[in-house]
Amino acid sequence: MPVDLWPQPVLDLLATGDDRPVFEDGDRIVTAAGMSALVRRIAAGFRDAGLRPGDGVALDVGVTAEAFAAVIAAFAMGARVSGIRPGLTPDQLGHLLASADARLVGEAGLAGLLRAPDDGVPLVAAGRPAGIARITWTSGSTGNPKGCAQTYAAMSAAWAAYPDRWPPAVAELAGRLGRYLVFGSLSSQVMLEYAILTLAAGGTLVAARPPGLPGMIARHRATASVITVGKLHQLVHDQRTRPADLSSLRALLVSGSPLAPGRLAEALEVLGPVVFHGYGQTETGMIAMATPAELLGDPAVLATVGRPPAVVDVSIRDAAGRPAAEGELFVRTPAQATAYWADPAESAEVFTGGWVRTRDLARLDANGYLQLLGRVRDVIIVEANLVYAGAVERVLSADPAVAEAYVVGRPDDVTGEAVHAYVVPATGHTPDVARLRRLVADTLGAAARPHSVQVITGVPLTPAGKPDKPALTRLDAAGGRAAR
């Protein structure tokens, strides 16, 4: 068994960290030794409950020291770990649990696991390199969540827990992660990845408690956090109008929706040299990153998502799969997923010949910086959640009052991008736009809820006779009836 099999580096770090603080939640501070004991107790609870390597566990837990310990303990047991994203509908949750063949562990179940005694025996990672370690589930905006499956070998090849593997941009970020704000879900891929990076860099995970930005940065004396594009826009606005004390802040890692160069420049101007602009996908992990110094040193870098590190292979291909200066981006990363769980057709489409098809259009500039040009797929990124336009259109079109439905995305200062819908009424019907918005949210989740629904008499067409979605975004509201 490899000594560095995931999560052995984390287990060793905690077991040897003694009184170093690793998790802070209000007045409660958990040391490395205390966290190590929590992990051992929860692992013992899993063992007593009959969990074995390869069994499925779905964690629906909050942001606490116990939640972090549960994630690490489940990995230590060699389980197939799924995190539950907030906001799933009951039907989506049921589909996820059935598809993942996983036992659900919520807060009550976690409390039960913690009743197991700590025998003090150091844990040894029990996973199998070829076994599935983690299924990271999408938001469910296709109708049901889709799971990206990573093996234990892939997670063991990741860079976060190993300072000697950190690419230069990541090493720069790591030095600023003294007090990293954690929120949402500790089983989130992004949140866990940078939590592990924080611990490996000697920092502390700090539970973010409401109210939100910018107050929580000042209140927790946070040095770093992950932030979506929408929340970044709001933070910049708030700092212009009602400045808070952000003197502790040293790093904001922007993720999710595309970020316009002008808005990125504004964020650096208002917040200072703290913004790291990164790009990655659930299927791949980090693909590229730009540091504040790079962004401030060359205006051209503002139009990019940074430079892929040496360990990331990049291939840009035309529609026929041939190398091209501009085209669809394919990547290979050390810790990429291997497939979509129980979805061989979609897996064959995306995971091809050892490469991951990003379905993003891109080019590399003369200095090796990656610029995104658009998307092959019709997807809208809302608060870092992928919302597929086709899925929303199908829900809207199923309503008896709707003859046709079309969905587009537009930039949004709150959510990064927002869903906007256009519906053609069925003969003799008047669509209830408020009900349509609720129907989408109930079926696909809150992220997919249309920001607006506009009733139109017909869809504009291209010269080829196909729906012209760009023309839809130019429609004047006077030509139809819009609702929010």
From TrEMBL:
<feature type="region of interest" description="Disordered">
    <location>
        <begin position="464"/>
        <end position="484"/>
    </location>
</feature>
<dbReference type="InterPro" id="IPR025110">
    <property type="entry name" value="AMP-bd_C"/>
</dbReference>
<dbReference type="InterPro" id="IPR045851">
    <property type="entry name" value="AMP-bd_C_sf"/>
</dbReference>
<dbReference type="Pfam" id="PF00501">
    <property type="entry name" value="AMP-binding"/>
</dbReference>
<feature type="domain" description="AMP-dependent synthetase/ligase">
    <location>
        <begin position="127"/>
        <end position="341"/>
    </location>
</feature>
<dbReference type="Pfam" id="PF13193">
    <property type="entry name" value="AMP-binding_C"/>
</dbReference>
<feature type="domain" description="AMP-dependent synthetase/ligase">
    <location>
        <begin position="19"/>
        <end position="105"/>
    </location>
</feature>
<dbReference type="InterPro" id="IPR042099">
    <property type="entry name" value="ANL_N_sf"/>
</dbReference>
<dbReference type="GO" id="GO:0016878">
    <property type="term" value="F:acid-thiol ligase activity"/>
</dbReference>
<feature type="domain" description="AMP-binding enzyme C-terminal">
    <location>
        <begin position="392"/>
        <end position="466"/>
    </location>
</feature>
<dbReference type="InterPro" id="IPR050237">
    <property type="entry name" value="ATP-dep_AMP-bd_enzyme"/>
</dbReference>
<dbReference type="InterPro" id="IPR000873">
    <property type="entry name" value="AMP-dep_synth/lig_dom"/>
</dbReference>
<protein>
    <submittedName>
        <fullName>AMP-binding protein</fullName>
    </submittedName>
</protein>
<dbReference type="InterPro" id="IPR020845">
    <property type="entry name" value="AMP-binding_CS"/>
</dbReference>
